Amino acid sequence: MKKLKRSARLVDMTQYLLARPHTLISLTAFADRYQSAKSSISEDLAIIKEVFEEQGIGELNTLAGAAGGVRFAPKTRKDVALERLLSICRQLEQPDRLLPGGYLYMTDLLGQPAMMQELGRMFASAFADRDIDVIMTVETKGIPLALAASFFLNLPVVIVRRDHKVTEGSAVSINYVSGSAKRIQTMSLGRRALKEESRVLIIDDFMKAGGTIQGMVDLLHEFRAVVAGVGVFVESGEVAQDERLLHDYVSLARLTEVDLKTRQIKVQPGNYFNSDSK
After folding, report:
1. CATH number of the domain at 6-74, please?
2. Tell me: the pLDDT tens digits for 124-145?
3. Where do the Phosphoribosyltransferase domain residues begin and end (predicted)?
């Protein structure tokens, strides 16, 4: 790359960091890229760090030593996330989204890249300090959320199948109980898809009693893997606590009321916003 003026260097360096979240980048790499002294690079990074924190974009952490450098951790301020999530809740409350059984139609929202980026950043903020190796979701509606979170956490995604595919090779399959009707279903994961003893973050689009997520937890036991966290986009608030199979999770939104007769829906921010931390 040709030598850039400082203003251009700041723009390019910012874009470089944003495109590589949770990646350690040495000062030497930046110095070589911009043909500049490390002291100048350090000054530029201090400016970017200040802007990132003031604007709630994330944190720029410095690691000292010969093997050190900087690492960008995307985060979103709770007040900014709450404002956006409230807008999403209003969309979820549209009467024509109500489906039989009290479920919500969300496929159109899950297909919006900008919204997925926002939700993915929220998940990344919630789990930024966890020790995680991989993100897991079950096909199909959880995939956009998992992929969005995976970008901001810089982690691979593992997709659990409802039915075993020949292209997955040998697999582990389990039966699990799903839905209020207590139906027995099957989920499968290829043996090559997940290393044993991995630390896994589970992401899903909707949780009622938690049967599907509990199925993924049980599947992880077959790989001797550890559940490092669970994140859901929308949880149902109409399930009694003693009926819920899962209690340790982060939800972005909460379905608090569904009236099938009047088709009235109420959605509120989830437990992610219960904390007073930024």
Report:
1. 1.10.10.10
2. 999 999 999 999 999 989 999 9
3. 108-238
